[in-house]
Amino acid sequence: MTLVDGTCLVYLRIGLLIVNHYLRGEIGLINFRSGAAGSAETTTTEATTTTEPTTTQAPTEPPTTTPPILTFDPSSVAANIDLGRCWCDVTGNACDINCCCDTDCDQADITSFDRCKESPISVDSQYCVQEEVILTDNSVYTSQKTQDGLFCIYKDNNQARNYYSIPDMINSLDTFNFYRDRYASFTYSPTVSADTTYAQFYKVGDPVFVVYEDLTSGYLTIPQGEPNCQSNNPVSYLVDQSFKCMRQMRTLDADSCENTPYLNASSYLTSVRIVKTPYLFTWIINGTERSLYNNSYTMEFEMERVECVDGNGLVVDCSFNAPSFNASHCNNAVLGVEYHITHDGSNGITRAGVRLLLGSIQASDLPLTQTYGSSFTSVNEVNKTITERSGNPGYIVGKPVRAGVLVENSTLALGDRYAIVEDMYNLTIIRGSATGTCLTDSANREQINFGINMVSGCLIRFNLFNVSADQYCSAMQDTVIDAMEGVVDTLTRDDPTIQRRVATYGNSNPLVPGDWVQILRNAPTQTTAQDTTVTQEGPKCTISMGMHTEILYANTGALANPQPKIIGVSFKYEPKQDIIYTCAGTRCTAGNTDVDQSYEVRHSVTFIDASQPATGYVGEPPVFLAKVPYDFFYPFISSSTRTGPSSYLYLVTCIFIFLCSNVLS
Fold this sequence. Notes:
By secondary structure, the chain is α+β, with helices and mostly antiparallel strands. The chain has helices at 3-24, 107-112, 173-183, 254-259, 279-285, 472-485, 490-494, 645-664, and strands at 30-32, 130-131, 144-145, 151-153, 209-212, 217-219, 241-247, 272-275, 298-300, 302-309, 315-317, 324-326, 329-343, 349-362, 368-378, 403-409, 417-421, 428-429, 431-432, 438-439, 446-447, 454-462, 499-503, 516-522, 532-534, 539-543, 546-556, 563-573, 577-580, 597-609. It has 4 domains: 20-45 and 92-165, no CATH class; 209-381, no CATH class; 403-609, no CATH class; 627-665, no CATH class. The chain has an 8-stranded mixed β-sheet. It is extended. Belongs to the tectonic family.
């Protein structure tokens, strides 16, 4: 049999099958769109019944006594009909507005309607159109899709498949559960929680465990939140973190100072041990060790360093003391906590240290701002000098802008050289307390991070108690400068031999001063007698009340991998303005010079992109040399010999004579 014969046989069998089904009435007439349909039609009706599945109860379950359910015959529902012909008739014995199919509405009611509510179901009388069913669509409109094929079904003889089957009522819990388990896609029932499993060792991001003296376990946490402190943030393994948050203290007295846990340094390192590796809990579950608190898999926290903020805002080393209340001050209160953890990779934690920052607070400092952090160091890096980079080489957005002071270093073997000391200076922006007062000490200033523009404002408070009226303006201007640049920065401001510099790249070497750009500063001019005027309201000063830190940077390297480089930093002070010390209130009596006056100052940070566009090299246009083969002018010139100057002259003469003859003719 050839391939053609086999193909014909297949088509013949398909034709016989279609005729057979047509004679049995299982499909409708098949019609060309351009032709007329046959007149023979056969309608069949199929009865559908819903059978309840049978379930067998497990013999291990105890028998339950269930009260019998009273069953009644439900109302009969006709099969294979559209039940929602008048869907808008929702009020019995009353006419629903704009429901034209409501039998309770007479002709007068329908005449008063402004419209008839459209049925959300479109009844299509064209059988050769396939309707697209949308299950969950709240729109009153339906979507139709017309098939553009050559054939279509003109009349569907199996009408039952266009209607839902009438389900039976469910009268048993087993049947209900069967349908629920089969058709429900979601349930609010609680799932059975699996037993907690513990890993053999810590991985990056895993919470660090601690155990307490009362044999309870938990996570090592550091408070975070904005603005209030939330003590539910676990320390993540090998992930350095740092947060600032506020404690909502309303009053400050002896009880709150000495008995508040987060103000007491001992609460961060006593009666708690850090878990070296989570294998401890597997060890305990297996019964190898009974003591959860004191064992070889836990260790105590070590006091690594204690620092205090003195009255001038400087951070100095101090001793560990419990909080004590003296008059209106709470001394040795915790201002910051940092956990410094040494690790050995998958072998777990080898050492846990705590660094504390203490200080004296008073009621005006409430609510209290505290700083918390955690850092991890490998055992292989303990004896190495670790240098934090802000990029390699270009700055990374969000990383601190590195800054330092240029000092003379005479201890190097090569002789007198200069180097950058980053510990002496940090590029920061002023920050206000909860009451709006400027926090000028270095511990409470906000770090300037690369690529992040910031603006801050706060209040400085000043009085005439310690200065005379003629010195008031100069003293106030110095206070503004200290607030803008930091109290510690007065050393670098007054000493011209010390220069503040900023790293051009995120990985600039402090021993190469050429990679550090100097901070340019247009400081306000010294106040003079013309800037100070004594009026009836009080001293009037003409001073600057704000500063803008502007940082210029440019992208370097490849266009596909730009590396930002800082090329300039400037401290730009605002133009001077008039400030008047005005006393108001009952305290303004003769001789009362300690009345505080509040003035607003502003500080902003702006990063300016000064990148130059890439300039591509365009080569010189090539010189086009027109050359022709040596026999190009054949037969005017013989191709057997090289043409000479006389031949070219002969050719040109002939062409000239030919052109002249044409013109004259």
